[in-house]
Design a protein that fits this description.
Elements: E1 10-13, E2 39-42, H1 45-48, H2 52-65, H3 70-75, H4 77-83, H5 98-101, H6 115-134, E3 139-144, H7 151-163, E4 169-174, H8 182-190, E5 191-193, H9 210-216, H10 224-231, H11 235-252, H12 261-267, H13 272-290, H14 293-305, H15 313-328, H16 336-345, H17 349-366, H18 374-388, H19 394-414, H20 418-435, H21 442-458, H22 462-475, H23 480-492, H24 496-509, H25 514-526, H26 530-543, H27 548-560, H28 564-577, H29 582-594, H30 598-611, H31 616-628, H32 632-645, H33 649-661, H34 665-679, H35 685-696, H36 700-716, H37 724-736
Parallel strand pairs: 1-4, 1-5, 2-3, 3-4
């Protein structure tokens, strides 16, 4: 008999040049050769900036799909246009959100830093569909120069490694390092090493201009001979050649070149300061608008440095962008100095207003939770409003005044002053409605209505909130996030089917969206569709394997479905991420108890309570374990804690059983007097228990009455009482007495 060959895995190769960070690969040795690639993709960010590799790949893939498989393109329209806006004509139905359509001056909503990750998941699914449709025997894609790629490409390759089946779409990734990021982890987990069949340096003519060859490679060559020739050029000639190359690239107008190679050459050309005020500023703002914040930050920092000692307006614009990028990238504490520089270096009111606004957003949103300070946020946003209200242009005054009031509403919302937040948003809406025509500043006005919807929902006015969501969806029907938020409002309002329809639309319109599947799973389970809920949780876990609550909810659902093996795997994975998670520790205890590992289960429940003493389920489960183990007094103690946290007839019924066993009959009767009226119709055994307690207290008539009701309930159900013999024996004993 012959064994089956192992399934294929993705491949990591190295150039051997050690250009990346981390541990460089020393040599190929006896490594097997990497498979030949069907598509060879360069990722060096100096070529085209963000998504240099991803965009090059889609420019090969989308034309192949066009015509024959337009439905696959349409399903991932947002992702295609995000990476390759030049391919919009090939997208059957391009998304038309107000965010995408707004001019830069009208933009008041910017993408989440997580958007690129969502886009990467969509690209992964598109590529798998492409490979199945057009390459049924499998396809191989080679990503080169990944160590020098923009973070967007590194994130994309990491997602592809994790999500693409190598039997369908196999990746060969050129990397000399295993950096401490998601790509480094993915390379370590999903790849095998192989030798690179492509030599790092190509043969060249004997009379080649080596210096020009280095420049024509747009600064991506690692050939030491080319670099040495370039460095030997006189500085003025180097600069002139860079400028000439920049002009040549600009004339070609290749997609993405203005975000990569052109910037590199202008930066080293004859007039770098002029480039900083034009090309760098435009590229930075373009990347910022697209949500490519790491690239925008890099461009802003490089552009600022080109001004030397001068401080023209573009310098301040780039400075503001640095602070804004750091805020969006969750590194807001590093932004303080840039906003301080804006205030200390300029007397322009608009610059001070924007700096004050960003300071307020840092303190109320962007800083780590422990650094939030709503009073400081209030101080800064009030200053921003004071400056906005003195703008000499009446229309600009209304626009920025409404914007800053909306910002203050967020601060008030975080201060839990919902009335103040609502008043501010209403004021901002009234200001803009009075000043603008019905079709002007639609994005800004939609954002205001959306924020009011959220405030009204927080106030419990779901009808008012849904009315605002209806309005913004009518204005911006392709924006998926609105449907997601309305789904939550409809669920809160009891409109479950409409909520499911909104979740479906949010999923259809958006790149893969973890939260939509996570929330829909919760609703589906509430409605009894456990299989549908599990499908959503499975997909949510693929999109975000580090989201602990997904693992918590899926483990709980799997336990309910009897799949203890998968549940245990989720519990174990979750506890690696959050070792003190009370839900997971409690679930672990339940699994151990079911496996009759009593002491281990007890330890898990105890650990859950140490992590969260208010966690009722852990008190209850430990009580059940104690009672089952023959320790009713311990069970009573734990149930005392549970009922003290959340009084409940079911818990009182359980405690009554343990109280009876330890002879605390009066306390048991008090608990059953609460439990019986609420639960006896569904659980007539409670009547039997109360009868036994009453008999123990000497109340024979009360005991007989409860037992008659107990037996009658079983008779009405057509079933014999499991306690009939005990009741008969007790009656006989009483007669004998």
């Amino acid at each position: 008999m012959t064994s089956s060959p192992p399934p294929p895995r993705h491949i990591r190769t190295g150039t051997g040049t050690g250009t990346g960070t981390g541990t460089a690969t020393a040599g190929h040795g006896d490594l097997p050769a990497a498979p030949p690639a069907d598509y060879d993709v360069r990722c060096h960010r100096r070529l085209r900036g963000p998504y240099t590799g991803g965009s090059a790949l889609l420019r090969a893939v989308i034309p192949e799909l066009a015509g024959a498989h337009d439905e696959l393109i349409a399903a991932r329209a947002t992702e295609v246009i995000s990476l390759t806006p030049d391919q919009a004509p090939l997208v059957p139905i391009a998304p038309q959100t107000l965010t995408a359509l707004a001019s830069r001056a009208e933009r008041t909503r910017f993408y989440s830093v997580a958007r690129t990750l969502r886009v990467s998941h969509g690209v992964a699914e598109l590529l798998m569909d492409w490979a199945r449709a057009l390459h049924p025997g499998g396809a191989v894609i080679r990503f080169r120069e990944v160590d020098d790629a923009d973070p967007t490409d590194r994130e994309l390759v990491a997602v592809l490694l994790r999500r693409c089946d190598p039997a369908v779409l196999r990746l060969v990734v050129e990397s000399d390092s295993l950096a401490d990021d998601e790509l480094g982890k993915a390379l370590h987990t999903y790849t095998d090493r192989a030798a690179d069949p492509v030599p790092p340096f190509q043969d060249r003519p004997q009379d080649a201009d080596l210096a020009q060859a280095w420049i024509d490679a747009d600064g991506t060559s690692t050939d030491p001979e080319l670099l040495a020739a370039y460095q030997a050029l006189p500085a003025p000639e180097r600069a002139a050649r860079h400028s000439a190359r920049a002009a040549l690239l600009a004339g070609k107008d290749e997609p993405g070149s203005a975000l990569g190679a052109q910037l590199f050459h202008l930066e080293h050309g004859t007039d770098p300061a002029a480039a900083a005020g034009t090309a760098f500023l435009e590229a930075c703002e373009s990347c910022f608008d697209s949500g490519f914040y790491e690239a925008a930050l890099d461009m802003a920092q490089r552009g600022r440095a080109l001004f030397g000692d001068t401080r023209p307006k573009p310098y301040w614009n780039l400075t503001n962008k640095i602070g804004a990028c750091l805020s969006y990238l969750r590194r807001g504490e590093k932004g303080f100095s840039y906003f301080a520089e804006l205030r200390s270096g300029s007397t322009e009111p608009e610059i001070h207003m924007n700096s004050c606004y960003m300071m307020a957003m840092l303190y109320t949103r962007h800083l780590p939770k422990g650094m939030h300070d709503e009073m400081r946020a209030l101080e800064w946003v009030n200053t921003a409003i004071a400056i906005a209200d003195w703008n000499p242009d009446p229309h600009r005054r209304i626009f920025v005044g409404a914007f800053m009031r909306n910002a203050k509403a967020l601060v008030e919302l975080h201060r839990a002053d919902l009335d103040a937040a609502l008043a501010l948003v209403n004021e901002a809406i009234a200001m803009t409605d009075a000043d603008l025509g019905p079709d002007e500043q639609l994005l800004h006005r939609s954002v205001l209505r959306y924020n009011r919807a959220q405030i009204l929902a927080a106030m419990g006015d779901h009808d008012g909130s849904l009315a605002d969501y209806d309005l913004v969806i009518s204005r911006d029907p392709d924006y998926g996030d609105y449907y997601f938020e309305r789904a939550g409002g409809r669920r809160a309002n009891g409109q479950f089917e409409a909520a499911l329809a909104d979740y479906a639309e949010a999923i259809r319109l958006s790149p893969p969206f973890h939260e939509a599947h996570f929330n829909r799973a919760d609703l589906l389970r509430e409605l009894g569709d456990e299989e549908g809920a599990l499908r959503d949780l499975d997909y949510a876990a693929i999109l975000d394997p580090y989201h602990v609550d997904t693992l918590v909810n899926r483990a709980d659902l799997l336990m309910a479905l009897g799949d203890t093996e998968r549940a245990a795997a989720d519990v174990a994975a979750g506890l690696v991420l959050d070792p003190k998670n009370a839900n997971l520790l409690c679930a672990q205890g339940t699994l151990l108890a079911d496996a009759e590992q009593t002491e281990a289960a007890l330890s898990s429940f105890t650990a859950a309570l140490e992590a969260d003493p208010s966690f009722v389920a852990a008190w209850v489960n430990r009580a059940v374990l104690a009672y089952t183990a023959g320790r009713p007094a311990d069970a009573v103690d734990d149930l005392d804690h549970a009922i003290g946290l959340a009084d409940d007839p079911v818990l009182r019924g359980n405690r009554a059983l343990a109280l009876y066993d330890i002879g605390a009959h009066e306390r048991a009767l008090a608990d059953l007097d609460v439990a019986v009226p609420e639960l006896a119709e569904e659980d007539p055994d409670l009547l039997f228990r109360r009868g036994a307690v009453r008999l123990a207290l000497g109340d024979r008539e009360g005991a007989r009455a409860d037992w008659r009701d107990h037996l009658a309930a079983y008779a009405a159900a057509g079933e014999p009482s499991p306690h009939a013999e005990e009741i008969a024996a007790a009656g006989a004993a009483e007669s004998a007495a």
